[in-house]
Design a protein that fits this description.
It contains ten helices and no strands. By secondary structure, the chain is an all-alpha fold. The protein has one domain. It is globular and about 40 Å long. The C terminus is likely disordered.
Length: 189
């Protein structure tokens, strides 16, 4: 595998295509990146990461129960570029979730990615709802709180990482000119 955009999309489809809402979310994350004006190599990297960021939810890949680590381990074993593996490992508050789950050592097996790249992936994830609907980051974080019970590690991790996630999304939105907190226009949905 050479890790082209088409190959990343097909790998995601192979492992997540039967997971209904999860697949809809992943497609929305990749679609969110499409209009951004980025350097070609950055655009390719973030799009590939968007397709693969949730691959660790696939039952065949699941190991630790933390999808970011499970996905990164899978991609690393398959020879994915280290930068792509690191984006999957650290996306959207993974450090706090790893801490909550007692998996920080496992997360630290991966290099931390460039923050500018990570910000872009986090923004794409936070503007894409669990069924593929377009949300703003506040709505998305609120949705996560409602979906997970307060004692769940994801709820606790997002609660702790919310200021960081919002700052990441704001930086990335400013970089790509994304209208983060206005009403979602029908053409963006």
């Amino acid at each position: 595998m050479t890790w082209t955009g088409d190959e990343c999309r097909e790998l995601a489809r192979e492992f997540l295509g039967d997971l209904g809402p999860r697949w809809a979310h992943v497609q929305a994350v990749a679609k969110a990146v499409a209009p951004w004006r980025l350097a070609p190599e950055t655009m390719e990297l973030i799009t590939d990461a968007a397709w693969l960021h949730d691959i660790g939810y696939a039952p065949a890949i699941r190991d630790t129960g933390m999808h970011a680590i499970d996905g990164a381990r899978f991609l690393d074993r398959d020879g994915a570029p280290k930068i792509l593996v690191s984006l999957v490992a650290f996306h959207t508050g993974a450090e706090q979730e790893a801490d909550e789950r007692g998996l920080m050592h496992e997360l630290m097996d991966f290099d931390r990615p460039d923050q500018d790249d990570l910000d872009l992936l986090i923004l794409a994830d936070l503007v894409s709802g669990p069924n593929g609907q377009r949300l703003n980051p506040t709505e998305r974080l609120d949705e996560i709180f409602h979906r997970y019970e307060p004692q769940h590690p994801v709820h606790r991790a997002v609660s702790k990482s919310r200021p960081y996630l919002e700052a990441c999304a704001q930086r990335a939105a400013a970089r790509v000119g994304y209208p983060m907190y206005g009403a979602v226009r029908p053409s963006m949905a």
